[in-house]
Amino acid sequence: MKLFTRTRGIAAVVALTCTSVGASFAVEPPNAKDLTQGKWALDLSKSKFCGAAPKASDRHIFDAGWGLIVTEWGGQNAEGKPIVNRYVARYDGGKYPDNITRPETPTSEGISWKLVDPRHLEFTHYDKQDKITSTYTREVSVDGQSMTQTSTFVGRDCKDVQVFQRR
User: Fold this and answer.
1) What's the pTM value of the predicted model, to 2 decimals?
2) Which residue, among 95, 88, 98, 100, has the nearest Cα to 63 in the 3D structure?
3) Contact 42/54 with Cβ under 8 angstroms?
4) Which domain holds residue 153?
5) Can you say whether the dihedral through the CA atoms of 78, 83, 89, 95 is positive or negative?
6) Of 150, 153, 152, 154, which is closest to residue 162 (Cα–Cα)?
7) Beta-bridge partner residues of 41
8) What is the mean pLDDT of each run of 10 residues along the chain (167 residues)?
9) What CATH number is associated with residue 127?
10) What is the largest CA-CA distance in the chain?
């Protein structure tokens, strides 16, 4: 009986230690008012694409000050070519360029951003004729460690669902 009690006690300590260690792997979001901010890596195994999936994709979303939010999008597309995009916008519903990375080729689309609540962001792409080309939602999980971006494209019956893990 004494051995059984001692074994149960050791098992409880090991379980508690593992739980504590597991919790320490969580990455703290940088801004409690906007949980989409931070560094994110695409989890290809949990994502679904209408077309060819990228080889890698990541996001770095941060507050640049003055009410401006920056999204840096990097990675490799399906052909292995680099993805380099940067957006700068406010969550005020106004339209902003969809890419400010290539000054030699001005963007052909604009994006309107709206932070619904700390875990939900909605944004819409518009062409130069002010027609909607695609809509997006980002939702951060309750624990703040994963983010799902759902993309709906005008004229297509399929939706992209990208799942990111916080880094």
Assistant:
1) 0.81
2) 88
3) yes
4) 30-166
5) negative
6) 150
7) 58, 165
8) 49 42 70 96 97 97 96 96 93 88 72 96 94 97 98 95 98
9) 2.40.128.20
10) 80
